[in-house]
Design brief:
The complex is a heterodimer of chains A (252) and B (268).
Chain A (H helix, E strand, L loop, with lengths): L5 H17 L1 H6 L2 H13 L1 H6 L5 H20 L2 H8 L2 H6 L5 H30 L8 H24 L4 H17 L12 H9 L1 H14 L6 H24 L4
Helix pairs in contact in A: 1-8, 3-5, 3-8, 5-8, 5-9, 5-10, 5-12, 6-9, 8-9, 8-13, 9-12, 9-13, 12-13
Chain B lengths: L2 E11 L5 E11 L3 E5 L6 H8 L7 E6 L8 H7 E4 L11 H11 L7 H11 L15 H12 L6 E5 L7 H18 L2 E5 L3 H7 L2 E6 L2 E6 L1 H8 L4 H9 L10 H16 L1
Helix pairs in contact in B: 3-5, 8-9
The chains are: A mainly alpha (252), B alpha/beta (268).
Chain lengths: 252, 268
């Protein structure tokens, strides 16, 4: 029996999708945060934002919230690795005749797909709330959504590879996620922010995701969309490599 | 006779100097049932991990079906099935899905997969529960499913690490009937560990006893009983390994983890 590489990747991807669609509570529960942000911030700050000359805040905020929900879901999908290690399923995959790289890719692709689906659901909610994206740019938007998902799933897998307990993972992830989100330009325009925030945003992968998504959906962005796409691609490769390396060291 | 498993001067030393397995050698003949016995922390699981490609030996040679697990891990993995000491099923999936995903990972031809799954699930009498989520299964049902899953890619060797721990006598009996049937009808080589000495006495053709990382006795159950001048394998085992209760020692890797955690904690 000679296994081709793509089928095991597909199998691991399929497993994560099945688990995702079966866990309705996870799906619905993770929609709470983006909805609260959209409603509270979008409607709460909307008039101030407009008075300050920023235009329609929902239009500005929505891509940021979509990016946030994708990032949070993607990073947290790393917890499934810890889960699988604790409940033994990881061993089953580790003795299968497939390389660790294949396992890592399959898992990352699965986690990224569920995070993208989550992003699409939030995208639909933003439209209900009043977001009006350029409908021809939706394909670009989807690509950016998937890009953000891959980057942060690989990131979550990398962290999870070095950790044993779920509580610890949750704490570390929150510690990282929150500043990445708040300093990404998701909530306020970066070009008018103080220089140190601009510097942090400059090295924050999420800011390129948010900017690219906003550019695709509304035509307004800080960088060229192609620059955002290039940076996201570069970070994806870097994080996948680091994730794969750390995953190759996992002991079961 | 041909050997399914051949181990020569195998040693595993963990970082930090813990010698979990110390220069052991043994042969498992093709088509035999082999019991690998020892108290907690004796080196059983470390040995199984080396045989099943999860750990690299520090020194010594080992072959499975003539292949080296270090050099040809993928070929070796295709040639054995394993039931781990702890459950390794995905609880959120159905029994059938667990089987299907295993087939996919092991490269079982897609055209043969449904028939093979049906064959194995009928063999362990779980076919009527194929669409139930595994989390609804009892411990015994999970074990049976794991055995079926371990055999799905038609390996020639089956590893069973304490397959009957925590199960009631009826289920244990059931499971041993399956294993013996597989051995007799399909010529499967079985390598198992257990703490139930009567299981080894009843089912194993060959036995090896490991303690403190060294093999201290091996042969047929009858020969070990005879050489120790005891009545049964349980008495022989206690005579060989002593009466003291072993602390539930963490395995080598667990010990390393504890050391690492202590070290990390100390830096804070």
């Amino acid at each position: 029996m000679k296994t081709n590489i793509l089928y095991p990747i597909y199998i691991l991807w399929l497993r994560q999708l099945k688990r995702y669609f079966r866990s309705k509570s996870r799906m619905i529960g993770s929609l709470g945060q983006p909805i609260v942000f959209l409603v509270a911030l979008g409607f709460g700050f909307g008039s101030i934002f407009a008075k300050a000359g920023g235009g329609n805040y929902i239009q500005f905020l929505s891509p940021g919230i979509i990016a946030m929900s994708i990032m949070f879901t993607a990073v947290f999908s790393g917890i499934e690795l810890i889960w699988d290690r604790q409940f033994g399923f990881l061993k089953e995959t580790m003795v299968a005749p497939v390389s660790r790289m294949t396992i890592m890719f399959g898992r990352t692709l699965g986690g990224a797909t569920t995070a993208t689906i989550q992003g699409i659901i939030v995208f639909i909610i933003t439209i209900v709330i009043g977001f009006r994206p350029d409908i021809f740019a939706v394909l670009w938007g989807l690509l950016f959504m998937f890009g953000i998902a891959i980057v942060f799933t690989a990131f979550g897998t990398a962290i999870a590879s070095t950790m044993e307990d779920m509580q610890g993972f949750g704490l570390i992830v929150n510690l990282v996620n929150m500043p990445l989100f708040f300093l990404s330009g998701a909530l306020f325009p970066l070009n008018t922010a103080p220089a140190f925030i601009q510097w942090i945003a400059f090295i924050n992968p999420l800011s390129y995701g948010v900017d690219g998504l906003r550019g695709a959906f509304t035509g307004v962005s800080l960088h060229l969309i192609s620059t955002d796409a290039l940076v996201i691609t570069g970070i994806t490769i870097l994080f996948l490599a680091v994730g794969a390396w750390l995953f190759s060291k996992v002991e079961v | 006779m041909d050997s399914s498993i051949s181990v020569k001067n195998l040693t595993k030393t963990f970082k930090g100097g813990l010698v979990a397995v110390n220069n052991i050698s043994f042969e498992v003949p093709k088509g035999s049932i082999f019991a690998f016995l020892g108290p907690n922390g004796a080196g059983k699981t470390t040995t199984i991990k080396m045989l099943t490609t999860l750990l690299h030996p520090t020194s010594g040679t080992l072959t499975l079906n003539g292949m080296d697990p270090v050099k040809h891990p993928h070929d070796v993995r295709e040639s054995f099935g394993i039931v781990f000491q702890d459950p390794s099923l995905d609880d959120e999936l159905t029994a059938y899905e667990n089987m299907f995903f295993h087939a996919g990972l092991y490269g079982v031809p897609r055209s043969e997969t449904p028939a093979k799954i049906e064959d194995m699930m009928k063999f362990v009498e779980l076919w009527d529960r194929k669409d139930s989520l595994v989390k609804t299964f009892s411990g015994g049902m999970k074990r049976r499913l794991e055995i079926a899953r371990g055999l799905l890619h038609t390996p020639s060797i089956l590893f069973l690490d304490e397959p009957t721990t925590g199960l009631d006598p009826q289920t244990r009996n059931y499971i041993w009937n399956y294993i013996k049937k597989l051995n007799e009808e399909r010529g499967l080589t079985v390598f198992f560990t257990t703490h139930y000495m009567e299981e080894a006495e009843r089912s194993a053709h060959q036995v090896a006893v490991i303690d403190h990382g060294k093999i201290i006795a091996s042969g047929t159950p009858a020969s070990i009983i005879a050489s120790t001048g005891t009545q049964n394998l349980e008495d022989a085992f206690i005579k060989l390994t002593g009466k003291n209760i072993r602390e539930q020692e963490a395995g080598g890797i667990d010990q390393l983890r504890q050391m690492r955690q202590a070290w990390r904690g100390g830096r804070k």
